[in-house]
Specification:
Elements (H helix, E strand, L loop, with lengths): L41 H13 L3 E4 L6 H11 L4 E5 L5 H5 L1 E4 L5 E4 L10 E5 L6 H13 L1 E2 L2 E2 L5 E6 L19 H4 L4 E4 L8 H9 L7 H42 L6 H21 L5 H10 L13 H15 L6 H6 L4 H10 L6 H14 L4 H11 L8 H15 L13 H14 L6 H15 L6 H21 L1
Parallel strand pairs: 1-8, 1-9, 2-5, 5-8
Antiparallel strand pairs: 3-4, 6-7
Length: 490
């Protein structure tokens, strides 16, 4: 990826609220949308231009009055496209394709009406979240394949849609009819862009919106916008050559990291994401402006999350954390052991990779990996992992502070634990201790592993970590499982 270049304005990404997902206010390319009479939309200009340049399906999500439809109509007008605009909530499929007419050979053709989709260069499905399910299913191949009833729509380049935020589990904003999109349909929109809210507009932008008037676009404005889109397309090849490999590595990593935060992206989405990021970079590259590659990548990522159309909150902090970690990993030297360690999401596998790598004089980095893994593991699993670190000879590779913490965990396992506190027979602790005795009776005193497990369970009980019989069973199960996994590694 390109090296970071200072921008004219400081980044405001840290000011974005955690939920719902809003476009990060990152770099703002020259105002192509402002020239079309659209104000306050600078924060989403780059992904919108990227979608148009790629001819990729674009879904705009925003409250009423945020210029979703106006934006798409102005782009269509500027590019001179024959556009069909449908209110999906009222759409009958016959309105879309015309009426079927039998032909002499027994097949069907369609009586084309002025409103039919045939011959259109762009289509807008407004209020798509209020569309009846059976109609929504028929829109699916139009969005995804540019086909209807199995017939190709040869002229159709752009598939656009707009919707209010879906209700999800609650409807506090009055959009009771806006239903979450089917996951498969949402995943077919390459870009899912959240419209900026009025509260994010500057004073000048608010004045411009208030004073704006309906007017046809001038020929020079249309020509300038068309040149802008062609410039983005022309820059795509150079962006692919320069950063394609790095972006591929970034996406591989960020998809795995997002999955750990329960933001699951499909393989198709990963493919879309690569093209989206390259296209957003091409928007800035073709404009001849300086830009921060990390923030431009975050902007493309935020505009590529389909869960926004499914009524699911996507916390921005989770998105930003995964992005920053993926950027850090993707820019490490391929031979750096930290690259493979940080790219491994499973904590036991990460510990295995870290212990098997050569860290030379980088004890602090190795120690940070170990302490992070131990912090992720649950009681029982953490104890077994500490036993593995000590007994496989890795304790001496840690710095003194982390070695002391690991050594303290191991000390509890190596020393026979005693229970001196009185436990009342009617208490929950008595039931927990009863289950503890049953589990301890199953362990083999001649087995070093079982002795470690017994000491770990008693120590966890004494410190009140195990509060119920179920806690005892869970910790016992984790200790044995981790011991088996890491024992095989050792």
């Amino acid at each position: 990826m390109p090296k970071k270049t200072p921008t004219a304005e400081p980044s405001a990404t840290d000011a974005v609220p955690d939920t719902p997902l809003h476009p990060p206010e990152v770099l703002k390319p020259p105002g192509a949308l402002r020239r079309l009479g659209l104000f306050g939309l600078d924060a989403i200009e780059a992904p919108v231009l990227a979608a148009v340049a790629l001819r990729a399906p674009l879904l705009l999500v925003g409250s009423h009055g945020t210029a979703k439809t106006l934006l798409l109509l102005r782009i269509s007008e500027a590019l001179g496209l024959e556009c069909r605009h449908y209110n999906a909530s009222l759409l009958n499929f016959d309105d879309l394709i015309g009426f079927p007419v039998p032909t002499a050979d027994g097949s069907l053709s369609y009586a084309k009406t002025p409103a039919a989709i045939w011959g259109a260069g762009a289509v807008i499905f407004d209020e798509i979240s209020r569309c009846r399910p059976e109609v929504q299913n028929k829109l699916f191949p139009i969005v995804h394949e540019r086909k209807v009833q199995g017939l190709p729509l040869e002229s159709l380049e752009h598939r656009w849609a707009a919707m209010n935020p879906p209700c999800g589990d609650g409807c506090e904003d009055g959009w009771s009819g806006s239903e979450p999109l089917d996951a498969a349909l949402a995943d077919r929109f390459a870009f899912v862009v959240r419209m900026p809210a009025w509260s994010t507009f500057s004073i000048d932008e608010r004045r411009a919106v208030i004073a704006a008037e309906e007017r046809p676009l001038g020929a020079s404005d249309c020509a300038a916008f068309a040149r802008r889109i062609e410039g983005v397309r022309a820059a795509l090849g150079a962006c692919e050559t320069a950063w394609g490999t790095a972006i591929t590595d970034y996406i591989r990593i960020v998809v795995d990291l997002l999955a750990t935060s329960e933001i699951d992206l499909s393989p198709r989405r990963a493919n879309y994401l690569r093209r989206n990021i390259l296209a957003v970079h091409a928007v800035f590259a073709s404009a001849g402006v300086t830009w921060d590659p990390s923030e431009a990548t975050l902007l493309a990522l935020a505009a590529s999350i389909p869960q926004q159309a499914q009524g699911r909150d996507v916390p921005v902090m989770k998105l930003k954390t995964a992005h920053r970690e993926a950027m850090k990993i993707a820019t490490l030297d391929p031979a750096d052991p930290l690259r493979l360690v940080l790219a491994t999401t499973d904590p036991l596998r990460r510990l295995e990779v870290a212990c098997g790598a050569s860290w030379e004089s980088r004890a602090t980095e190795f120690s940070n990996v170990v302490i992070d893994v131990l912090a992720e593991l649950r009681p029982g699993a953490r104890d077994a992992a500490a036993a593995y670190i000590v007994e496989s000879g890795h304790l001496g590779r840690l710095n003194s502070a982390v070695a002391s913490q690991v050594g303290e965990i191991y000390r509890r396992l190596a020393v026979t634990q005693k229970v001196d506190d009185p436990v009342h027979t009617s208490s929950k602790a008595w039931k927990t201790w009863g289950r503890m005795k049953e589990v301890l009776a199953t362990l083999d005193p001649e087995s070093a592993r079982d002795r470690r497990c017994a000491n770990a369970l008693v120590a966890l009980f004494v410190e009140s970590t195990l509060k119920t019989p179920e806690d005892v069973d869970a910790a016992h199960r984790r200790f044995l499982t981790v011991s088996e996994v890491l024992g095989a590694v050792a």
